[in-house]
Structure prediction request, 229 residues.
Amino acid sequence: AQSVSQHNHHVILSEAASLELGCNYSYGGTVNLFWYVQYPGQHLQLLLKYFSGDPLVKGIKGFEAEFIKSKFSFNLRKPSVQWSDTAEYFCAVNAMGSNTGKLIFGQGTTLQVKP
Amino acid sequence: EAGVTQFPSHSVIEKGQTVTLRCDPISGHDNLYWYRRVMGKEIKFLLHFVKESKQDESGMPNNRFLAERTGGTYSTLKVQPAELEDSGVYFCASSQGGADTEAFFGQGTRLTVV
Prediction:
C-alpha cells in the first residue's frame, strides 16, 4: 500500500534559521509529489509540486523541495524561516497519470517559529 | 473566483445523531474529493467524485457514511448514526483534472461527536 512518512512531527526554530522537513514515500510506480501548508485558521494550500522535469522545485514564499528518486524522498527546505511560516506542513503523493487524483498524506509537521 | 467552501465550519452532535456536511467546489471543477483527519493522525482519503459519479470510494470507513453529488455540483457527506470515532476534521477538495492537476481545499468542517 502507498504510504508517506514525515520524519518530524513538531519542529521549533528561531527566525532566520534554516528549515528542512523530511518526507519519504512508498509506492512502486511513478508519483506526483506535493507539499501543502495550513496556516492557523486557514485552509490547506499548495506550497509546491513535482510532476516531472527538474527535481529541484521552487514554490511560494521561498520554499523549495528536491525529489530524489533513489531515496523515495521529497524534502522541503527554506534557507531562512520567518515567524509567519508558523504552520502545519503536509507532504502528499498521488499516482501519476491515474484516473484518480486522490492524495496520500503524511502525518504532518507542525512548525513553530519563534520571533 | 470563489474557492472551495464547506458548511458548517464546526458541528457538535451527540452519539447516534445524524450530521450532514456540505461542500461547494470551485465552479467548473468536475473532480471533488472528501478527506478526513482524525486528531493526531494523517489526512485520509474518503472518496472521489467525477461530476456526479463516484470514481473511488475505497476510503469510506463504513456504511454509516453516505456521500452524494447530485447534478455534479455541490456534494454532501452524511454520517448516520454518528459514533464517537467519527470526530475529526472533514476536508473537501476540488480539481479540474485527475492526478496531474492541483487540488484546492476547503477550510474543513470540524465534527465533534459527544
Q: What stands out?
A: Chain A has no helices and twelve strands.
